[in-house]
Amino acid sequence: MGEAGVGLEHDALHAAARGDDLRAAIGALRMRGDRVTAPRRAVLTVLAARADHLTADEVASLLGEGDVHRATVYRTLDLLAASGVVSRQHAPGGAARYHLATTAAGRRHLHGQCVDCGAVVVLPPEALRTASRMLRAMVGFTLALDQSTLVGRCAACAATPHH
Ligand SMILES: [Zn+2]
Ligand SMILES: [Zn+2]
pLDDT tens, 37-64? Predict the structure, then answer.
């Protein structure tokens, strides 16, 4: 894996199977017994189409005025985040950002976000399996890795001397 293009890798991962991921997300909602309403389907469709971690306003803009009311978009994102189908990330001083957390089988991934350039880097979930198990055993805490974004520095930025 080269240092350049680590951000592109995440875009490519999501671009590869948008339909599958959307179906997996809708399937996960149904499995929980949540209804798949038109606004929920519309919001999930927007999130599945983009690898970016989007703010609620960006989701509303991408949906287009008139289709789904802005307040409904906010409520829907809240519900989807609470159900774990969508991840919500709070950046200090910024608006919360949303990303599809449910991906089709074999495409599960964790997100690392670079504090320098903002790139979202794909991280293999198995790298944290031991840490996960240890935390549960030691303090009874269960990590929600699908809903987490880890903060750090991408390979390219880590290799660049500080400006
Ligand atoms: Zn992703
Ligand atoms: Zn970076």
Answer: 999 999 999 999 988 889 999 999 998 8
Q: List the domain range (segments joined by +) for residue 29.
A: 6-159
pLDDT digits (tens, 9 = 90+) for 97-116: 898 887 777 788 888 888 88
Residue 4: count other Cβ atoms within 10 Å of its Cβ: 8
Q: What is the CATH number of the domain that holds 37?
A: 1.10.10.10
DSSP H or E stretch at residue 120: strand 120-123
Count structural domains, the chain. Answer: 1
Distance 69 CA to ligand 2 centre (A): 35
Residue 101 lies in a domain: yes
Q: Which ligand is nearest to the CA of 17?
A: 1
CA distance 46 to 57: 12
Q: For ligand 2, an ion, list residues with CB under 5 A.
A: 114, 116-117, 119, 154, 157
